[in-house]
Amino acid sequence: MNLHKYSEIITSTVTELSEYESVKLLCLQHHEGEPYPSETILQEIIKLCRSLLFPGYFGHSNVNRRNITYYLGVNTEKLYELLSEQILAGLCFICDRTKYVSLEGMREEAVKIAAEFIKSLPELRKILTTDVIAAYNGDPAAESYGEVIFCYPAIRAISNHRIAHQLLKLGVPLIPRMISEMAHSETGIDIHPAATIGSYFTIDHGTGVVIGATAIIGNNVKIYQGVTLGAKSFPLDENGNPIKGIPRHPIIKDNVIIYSNASILGRITIGEGATIGGNIWVTEDVPAGARVMQSKARQ
Amino acid sequence: MNLHKYSEIITSTVTELSEYESVKLLCLQHHEGEPYPSETILQEIIKLCRSLLFPGYFGHSNVNRRNITYYLGVNTEKLYELLSEQILAGLCFICDRTKYVSLEGMREEAVKIAAEFIKSLPELRKILTTDVIAAYNGDPAAESYGEVIFCYPAIRAISNHRIAHQLLKLGVPLIPRMISEMAHSETGIDIHPAATIGSYFTIDHGTGVVIGATAIIGNNVKIYQGVTLGAKSFPLDENGNPIKGIPRHPIIKDNVIIYSNASILGRITIGEGATIGGNIWVTEDVPAGARVMQSKARQ
Amino acid sequence: MNLHKYSEIITSTVTELSEYESVKLLCLQHHEGEPYPSETILQEIIKLCRSLLFPGYFGHSNVNRRNITYYLGVNTEKLYELLSEQILAGLCFICDRTKYVSLEGMREEAVKIAAEFIKSLPELRKILTTDVIAAYNGDPAAESYGEVIFCYPAIRAISNHRIAHQLLKLGVPLIPRMISEMAHSETGIDIHPAATIGSYFTIDHGTGVVIGATAIIGNNVKIYQGVTLGAKSFPLDENGNPIKGIPRHPIIKDNVIIYSNASILGRITIGEGATIGGNIWVTEDVPAGARVMQSKARQ
Amino acid sequence: MNLHKYSEIITSTVTELSEYESVKLLCLQHHEGEPYPSETILQEIIKLCRSLLFPGYFGHSNVNRRNITYYLGVNTEKLYELLSEQILAGLCFICDRTKYVSLEGMREEAVKIAAEFIKSLPELRKILTTDVIAAYNGDPAAESYGEVIFCYPAIRAISNHRIAHQLLKLGVPLIPRMISEMAHSETGIDIHPAATIGSYFTIDHGTGVVIGATAIIGNNVKIYQGVTLGAKSFPLDENGNPIKGIPRHPIIKDNVIIYSNASILGRITIGEGATIGGNIWVTEDVPAGARVMQSKARQ
Amino acid sequence: MNLHKYSEIITSTVTELSEYESVKLLCLQHHEGEPYPSETILQEIIKLCRSLLFPGYFGHSNVNRRNITYYLGVNTEKLYELLSEQILAGLCFICDRTKYVSLEGMREEAVKIAAEFIKSLPELRKILTTDVIAAYNGDPAAESYGEVIFCYPAIRAISNHRIAHQLLKLGVPLIPRMISEMAHSETGIDIHPAATIGSYFTIDHGTGVVIGATAIIGNNVKIYQGVTLGAKSFPLDENGNPIKGIPRHPIIKDNVIIYSNASILGRITIGEGATIGGNIWVTEDVPAGARVMQSKARQ
Amino acid sequence: MNLHKYSEIITSTVTELSEYESVKLLCLQHHEGEPYPSETILQEIIKLCRSLLFPGYFGHSNVNRRNITYYLGVNTEKLYELLSEQILAGLCFICDRTKYVSLEGMREEAVKIAAEFIKSLPELRKILTTDVIAAYNGDPAAESYGEVIFCYPAIRAISNHRIAHQLLKLGVPLIPRMISEMAHSETGIDIHPAATIGSYFTIDHGTGVVIGATAIIGNNVKIYQGVTLGAKSFPLDENGNPIKGIPRHPIIKDNVIIYSNASILGRITIGEGATIGGNIWVTEDVPAGARVMQSKARQ
User: Fold this and answer.
1) Which CATH topology does C31-185 take?
2) Which one of A204, A233, D100, E68 is least enclosed by Cβ atoms within 10 Å?
């Protein structure tokens, strides 16, 4: 194709796109020598975590009792290296110079956090075991734990959440949110990394589920596709913008079931053992043991 | 970065993660020499199937009448080889030693099933043709069959379903479910491979659709995004867990339309030609020709 | 595995699949020498656009004020080349011989459109800036513009939409729809490329959102996950098929908020500043400033 | 690492390297829209040729009598497409505007040459068959034709030569030389694409062999590693530079053997059936049937 | 480009190339289900061997005393799997049905040989250690063992040789020769896998070295670039073809040095401690301690 | 395949290979957090250098006068980053703690050297221009400068040498030698990075050429394939090992030609304008203008 006919346009557009005023808001000014957050590397990190948490299912390794230490050893080493770098990228992204006086200081912090995260992996595996059991027990179509681990999007979304939540608790900026959004894109399940979730948690099908940042979920809770645990309204500051950081999402007590497409909104409490029917909009507290349903459809 | 400062932690965590008690539930113990289920290879298999069913649209091949046999030939050969291996992986995963006395026996079974699957491809193409026609006719925005094949997520989800359903009927474990979940992740449409679906089936937009394992869908049915054909409740066994394998999803008769976000739950029947409005929750039979709608919203 | 036992089946299936009658509807007959639409290349094109619109965030480049022209220059050049080819592929796909008498003519048109698209990039960046600001201001959980750009699926979906919409306005067939569906698969947000959308547009969470081809959205509109701006019914032609091209989706005026899973259907108007509650089904005009909610759930 | 300390140097070096005077001799000025010669694509082309000439040995295909047409069909199609493009790249590189008035004209020529080349493949296979037989018969260590095809560098170098020679005869610039140099790098055997070589030609070991552009080699000739068939001296033009295009390399008659590291230089003739010993320097005609050896070493 | 003009030629050439008579000599008839020899996999195998023999230098692993078992464990597992498959490919290639009655039998043999090979790796590392020491001591330009391992082509060629020689001794067909030729292509050093080579062996620079199948080399031998240890003449059988398998290459005793481009030909013996000058042609025994040189050049 | 039969062997071999005594000499003990020398990255570095020195020929970029700054800018930035890292890897490899007290110190040194190297690129391009001219003028078969740059192995080998020599002069350990060996493997030309080479240098064909570390080559020198500029003998130290660092390779004055396979050995001088014939062994000074030839072969 004769491309050069329009080369003037190309050149002048490049100039225009490079102008500082045009780009300053949307450009990530990179400090040379610092790593930057990378979705590709984070995907590798998640693969490594999954291969450590569920050996043999993820990571394409021929794991057995004899050789498992080899595989877990190599993958832990690699995770440590990549995670240290991405945590540093997160710290650099925020670049809180009140906290870190030098790149070297952030580097030390990043390595320390990565080690602490790795230290928590056995604990993460323990709680994920309860999630696998809950998914298996809760779904008549599930044929084995193995099928649940291999195939259920909920396990992938919850794994990413528990990893992201742990990193967030260790003080890592940005990276936890990126990890959550990777699961969101893969499964359609959107859990904010700050959400607190108990053991034996399961989500069936999952597409469209939204769990907000300040939500608190007890043990043995089951939710279905399309469920929103969201905010109802946001108190505004003097500029008319929402005030950040206020508790604004529901508290779900133990043993609650929420059916598909229900929306639970605001800092309300769904009491222990309650059942929320599908396709409804709940903005007030629900007592323990209650069953809330949609009003009858008309024909 | 100075990573070695925390190397003690790494080593002890590897040891802890490798301990049999910790890992036994979540570890796929691999038998050396057997293939294992691989999402990457299954994606290749789906690509090959799509390139055989819709030549020229998928598989980046310059197909025309003169050379079509070359391309279909090479792709069929490759499909045969990869599919045999993944079917074997599925058989090994279940490892039903009451049925197969040796790896060699499973190997022979796998090859036979793969050949039978390939034999059914022309039939699969025929029914998928009806799905393409239905999608084109049903959407005023569709400009050609080609656009439908190239762009509509429903075609991808239904193709995967028809492939997975065929493999499930041929007795392949696990693999069909993995294929369904791949479509679920790609399109947000979650169809259990065991669901029975007639011809001229179409799904508009599709995100959030859920079709359960025992659902039965007639011919010429159209459903919209967010529709659930789900279970209402599960009879429990003596341990309080759901009994597996009971018919528990709806029967949708011919010529039914179900609008967005409707939930049809339980072993009920939606009669021929009925219309189900959006955002509603249906748990009882709907007679043929009926129109069911949400109760009026209040202002 | 002993694969040759069933080689007869393979050969006869290849023959059957290659027969013209069987394949003619589903086969893209490729004209040798013409490019064909490629999802892989379109993904590269989207990556390049994102790297030009949000330098440093996408494209893994170490951009700073000193070197920005290098990176934007190289990426613009590459975009120009790839986009010209894919636009040509789109033109060839439709192959409107009443409009173009030769491949050479389509080639010239493709290059011209690609240049015009590139010329519009600074304008696209300007309006996307308003979307980023809207997402940040509207979400108490957002911590910086950077986090919004990096992590929010809405930004990806809206970017793809604005790119696709621009290409559609420039007369490119097929390609815009493919770009929309790529965003749909990545984010669960399905915006038809023909939809008209004003500035400061934001979508929270987004999974399950559907915006139809003839929808018109004003400035400063916010919608939540699962919202449908759809058609209600389609006037049928004499063959019982929907008539294509009729305005059939809603008009949303400035400053409207629509909560999760609401369905707004048909060519109705939601008046300026109105609020639509979640999980409801709206098929009639809503006056400016009104608040529409679901009828109360029963316990 | 703190890279920005020296960013001034980077910027000023980029400017200096981009100055026209500095770069004009060493820069390939690319005409936008034209393909350029690509080693990567040529390597793909050579792989395709090898897979067509020696099916099953190269190209990783599971070829057998039943499916061979599929594989050869697909690979020929692909070869045709890639070769047309690279031939065009060669024509553009020379850009002889006295011969071609437009890019379109070169395009037509390129496609025509590619088709003619493909037409000659069966003939190329025939003569390469004689080379394989010669290599097998001539080496006591060779265990089968298959081993010769798989392992012997001579077969790779001679294949590349026969392909390059054919392209050169069809008038393709540059590309033949690139193909020769690819074999040179892979095997250490450097045969100029213009050299004329008869049937049943074999080279043992081969590293360091050089065969010049105007060399003529008869049938059934065998040479060893390190043999040079070179030029002795070059007549100079008035500027003191060698005159191009004069016959200046040896003529080797049928049934000659040349042992390792011998140098045969100038337009001399080695008579039929002659034997040239190793490590010698021959600059005069050698009569048919003669044996030429190095003078005795001294201890 | 308008490629279809010549599509007739393509089709008829494919037919011609697929004809059995044309292809039978040069086609590897593949038995479906059997693996075939693969240069790509063998390159992976060599990489794995190198990473096991010289940990940290090859294989890009961050090896240290703490984690070495992880890396060696994973790489040994992978080597075992890939090598078993390629040994089977070699056995299938020869397909000696007098020796193996079934594919299953060859499979068992392949696994057994792979395990035996792995068992010999510590021994291979021991002798390669002597080669590294010899290269370091023999070259004034060498600055450390590390530099020798990283950079010296001799180490790569000798590693490949010792691996190939071991596989050949274990009865593997074809594969050893392919491994030798891979080193030949990489380094220009051509050592037949059957050659017997003692410890502390080194080759300086190496390009053009040829060591024949029946050569026997003692300990502490050093040779330079371009040296041939070749055959002089081949006894012919009744058909005029060389008789295979006869000892026909030199015996080099301990502590011999052979300078660049010397050719030592035939089953002669170079006595202990002898020195062979460069560029000479030796076809008779050389006594221990002797120095053989080229006759004086004339000016 | 049933691989687990021999798993005992695998496990015990891994243990044996990991033992410190066995591995200590051949293992590169990696300090966590430091980069290590990587052939893959060095190959990328060489590609970047070639794309900067010969824009348009290497690096697959569509360079023209309008856009050249974009491409050179991006490639220089990338070169700077990768080279800094590999220089640091070289410094860590040697790990001269008498010179650098900390990793941070080596890091700063690495960045500084990388910037200095980049600063010298325009000078490197100037001298490489003379080499291209010399190759073109010296070979009657060369048809354009472009062909020389694209195809001649000498240009690749000399480019690598001039790059490696510059890095060596800037004090970089190991990396220069690796770069030389990469050219050696690609072209069969082995030039030690410490060798000093004047302008207008050319090598014809090149396979087997060896140029030693202390060789000094004047301007306008031409050498042919198989030429060795080597050492004759090495003074030994008290332990019988060669003393490192002594001048031991030839000095070649301006305007000398050396024909194929000649060996020039020891610290001798080949006088200005001398011609050295092929296949000879020269160990004594040759006066200016002299012609040295092999003694006559006998028939």
Assistant:
1) serine acetyltransferase, domain 1 (1.10.3130)
2) A233
Three-class secondary structure assignment of F189-241: CEECCCCEECCCCEEECCCCCEECCCCEECCCCEEECCCEEECCCCCECCCCC
Q: Provide CATH code, domain A34-187.
A: 1.10.3130.10
Contacts of A2 in chain D (CB under 8 A): 32-33, 103
F9 close contact with A: CB closer than 8 A? no
Q: Which fold has domain E34-189?
A: serine acetyltransferase, domain 1 (1.10.3130)
E102 → chain C, closest CA residue:
C2
CATH topology of domain F33-184: serine acetyltransferase, domain 1 (1.10.3130)
- C-alpha D117/C-alpha D123 separation (Å) is 10
- Residue among D3, D32, D33 minimizing CB distance to A32: D3
Which residues neighbour C30 within 8 Å (Cβ) at sequence distance 6 or greater?
Answer: B56, B61, B62, B63, B64, C36
* Identity at B250, one-letter amino acid code: P
- Chains A and D form CB pairs within 8 A to the count of 20
- Chain-centroid distance of CA C271 in Å reads 25
- B8 Cβ neighbours under 8 A, 6+ residues apart: none
Does residue B20 register a pLDDT over 90?
no
| Whether domain B194-235+244-298 has CATH 2.160.10.10 | yes
- The three-state secondary structure class of F95 is coil
Structure tokens at D87: 């031939």
Q: Mind telling me how many Å the CA of C6 is from chain B's nearest CA?
A: 6
Amino acid at F241: N
Q: Which of these, F208, D212, D256, F275, lies nearest to E279 by C-alpha position?
A: F208
- Residues B256, B201 contacting (CB under 8 angstroms): no
Q: Is B127 on the interface with C (CB under 8 A)?
A: no
- Chunked into runs of 10 residues, chain C (299 residues) has average pLDDT values of 75 88 73 84 96 86 83 94 95 75 85 96 96 92 90 97 98 96 97 98 96 97 96 78 84 96 94 92 94 67
Nearest residue, CB atoms, A77 vs list E67, E72, E77: E67
ipTM: 0.91
CB A220 within 8 A of CB A237: no
Choose the closest CB to A72 out of B17, B93, B244.
B17
F228–E122: do the CB atoms touch at under 8 Å?
no
Nearest of A25, A176, A184 to residue C132 by alpha carbon:
A25
The answer to whether residues C80 and C118 touch, using CB atoms and an 8 Å cutoff, is: yes
Q: Residue F271: what pLDDT? A: 98
Q: Where are the extended beta strands (E) located within chain C?
A: 190-191, 196-197, 202-204, 210-211, 216-217, 222-224, 228-230, 251-252, 257-258, 263-265, 269-270, 275-276, 281-282, 291-292
- Tokens 């290296």 locate to A81
Domain D208-299 CATH assignment equals 2.160.10.10:
yes
Interface contact D70, partner C, CB < 8 A = yes
Give the pLDDT mean for E256-282.
93
The structural domains of chain B, with segments of one domain joined by +, span 33-185, 194-235+244-298
**CB atoms < 10 A from the CB of B22, how many?**
15
The CATH class that applies to domain D34-188 reads mainly alpha
Question: Measured between CB atoms, does A93 come within 8 Å of chain B?
Answer: no
Residues C98, C111: Cα–Cα separation, whole Å: 20
pTM of the model: 0.92
Nearest to C77 among F70, F73, F77 (CB): F70
Kindly report the nearest CA distance between residue D36 and chain C, in angstroms.
14
User: Which one of 2.115.10.20, 1.10.3130.10, 3.40.50.850, 3.65.10.10 gives the CATH number of domain B33-185?
Assistant: 1.10.3130.10
CA separation, residue F223 to residues D226, F27, F145, F208 (Å): 15, 39, 19, 11
What pLDDT is attached to residue F237?
A: 78
Q: Do D26 and F125 touch (CB under 8 A)?
A: yes
